[in-house]
Amino acid sequence: MNAKVNPLSRRPKNKRLVMAVRGAAGVGKSHFAASLADAGLGRLCFFDAERKARLLAGVSGVKPKFDAIEIHHPDELPDFINWALEGEGKEQNYGCYALDSWTLYFGRKYRQSLESIRRQTGDPTAQPSAEQLQADQLIYQEVLRRLCVDSGACVVITDQIAAKGKEDREENELGQVLPMTLGGLEYYVDVMIELSLRIEGFEQVRVARVIKSNSPSFPIGLEIKNPSFGDFLAQMEELEPGKTEIPEFLKPSQSIVLEEPKLADLLKRAQEVGLEQTQLLTAARHYHGVTMLEQLEGSQIADLLTRLNEKYPSSPEKKKLAKAA
After folding, report:
1. CA distance 24 to 100
2. 19-66 pLDDT tens trace
């Protein structure tokens, strides 16, 4: 019998935060994602679709602070995520994940699909149908689901937005496709922030402003200057551990299996009440259609025993009947 999971063991035990970081180029989105490595969450696995992680501090050397994995082709990303979560990469004991950037991954994946359609149709202006867009959307959503849900870890996903005055994003031929992916990203993250640069006095300050939130710890409009992921994690309320440890699996229930009575039990009981075998056979033939007592099945024997006990109650049962009378 397979052990059943105890649902109460799945109560939240650790602080976990899934964030999306939006902003124009150069505001520090990648640096914020890399700050996961300093948040005390375990080793960071940094999926680098932009191939710029080589510029981040702590990514090089004999013992890098975190593992930056360059994505050379968009189709590699789902395989690399599976490698980190369930494959050989699981041995690295990653405690948190980052994807830099969602926009570039989507842009390249969409462009790949668009070029394939135009090669197949021979039309240089062909556009994907609604069915083709939906098929691609399933792939995009699977990437987000694996990272944000299945990993069970803290995650940061960066998302490029254009500078003011521009309506198209990088690597995106058709700007109208982006709302579809943005909606998916908003669905999977707990908090979305927008990074920007601000001049205060003579200093340049990075400012993170919360623009979408599912948590009262991060009200819309909240601003944190020169933020790190650890700053946001510290903003969350601590989860109080339970007073007693709850086992992960339920103990198997011990069901009572009643053994069916045998023919010998029926014959013994019939003898106790003074019933001949011929009388017993007559009853068996009448109630169960058998021609021999040996043909009786366990349930049929039990039925005849019940009828015997009702007709000829034992001594304790006689006392109960007499008392009731």
Report:
1. 13
2. 999 999 889 999 999 999 999 999 999 999 999 999 999 888 778 999
Helices (H), 74-206: 76-85, 102-121, 130-145, 178-188
Asked whether the beta carbons of 98 and 161 are under 8 A apart, the reply is no
Backbone angles phi and psi of 18, in degrees to 5: -115, 120
Q: Would you tell me which CATH number, out of the four given (3.40.50.300, 3.30.460.10, 3.40.47.10, 2.70.50.60), belongs to the domain 14-235?
A: 3.40.50.300
Give the whole-number percent of the chain exceeding pLDDT 90: 40
CB 316 within 8 A of CB 323: no
pTM of the model: 0.69
d(CA 45, CA 146): 14
Do the beta carbons of residue 291 and residue 255 sit within 8 Å? no
Q: What are phi and psi of 55, to 5 degrees?
A: -90, -5
* Side chain identity at residue 154, one-letter code: C
